[in-house]
Each structure stands twice: as structure tokens, then as C-alpha cells.
Amino acid sequence: MVNNNNSSRLIFGLALVILGLLLILPRGGVVNQSETFANEPIKVEGFNFEEREEIIPKRIIIPDLAIDLIVNKAYVKNGYWEVFPDSAGWGEGSGIPGHPGNQVIFAHAKEGLFLPLHSIKVGTDIYILTEDDWYLYKTFDITEVLPSETNVIAPTEDEILTLYTCSGFQDSKRLIVAAKRI
What we know:
Strand content: 25-35%
CATH architecture: Beta Barrel
Number of domains: 1
Largest sheet: 8 strands, mixed, barrel
Order of helices and strands: HEEEEEEEEEE
CATH class: Mainly Beta
Strand order of the largest sheet: 1-2-5-6-9-10-8-7
CATH superfamily: Sortase
């Protein structure tokens, strides 16, 4: 014989779980990753658009996080950098390895891309490979900002590597990892 009180509790518990999921998940149940960066204006003013193809980043490797990604050149289209569903992007006109400037590499915060960045620590090694060479960077700052805080990707006088991905509740913030070449 089934205890009627236990059945009621089970049904009530399942109803609460379903209600909770409906409240926290966006419409459709998942975040559409292709809409996270592209719907936000990213100022690309002051960048150098005369880089040489052989010295732009082609790959990023972060051994401690098991990240090993191809980096594609993300062109500016209608005021936005392209965002790729299956690779990292290097922002056209941002800095290049071995030269002063803020080189910006970004990817979606999903498995197989930059999701592991949420576990990065200060002092983590990051390798950037170009067509002809490789460069070692070490993280020195990790922060979260609002999407409107684009000063983190602005050009710099020093050689800086900035990694950029989504974070926060429903991708409402951006995780910024800054690193210097060593």
C-alpha cells in the first residue's frame, strides 16, 4: 500500500523543481551562445588594423585548464567583432604577440571553449602561438565586469593579453583575464 502522504510530498517536490527551472532558465531552456557577444556594441576605436598575418595569434594553450584552441581572426562587422561557435577569436586590430598593445582573445563560455577560464588563477601560464613563433604569458589579474565596461579591451601602451568570456547569471557579466608576457 502506497502512503498517500509520501506521494503528495513527491508530487509537490517535483512541482517545485519544475517551477524553479522555469524561473532560472531563459526562454527555450538554454542560452543561445551565438547571441551573447554579437548583440553588444564593442568599441574598436584606436586599434591598429595594419597587422601582419604571420604574427597574429593562431592558437591558445592553457595547460592547467586543458584549453587548446584554434584562434581565428575576428573581423569587425557593423561595429562588432565576429564571435565563433567553435573556436576562439582574436579581435582584428587589437595587439599582436611580442609588440606593445592589448591583444584581445575571446570565446564563448561553453565546454570545449573558454568555460574552464572560470577556474583560472593568478600566475597561470598561457601560450599564444603564431604562424612562426610562440609566446608565454602569465596571468596577473582576473575580474568580472559588465558588458558595457569595454575599457578592459581598449588599446594599451604595454603588451597585454586579455581573455574575454561570459560569466554571471545568464551571461550578464564578462570574465576578464589579463596576462603579461614573460
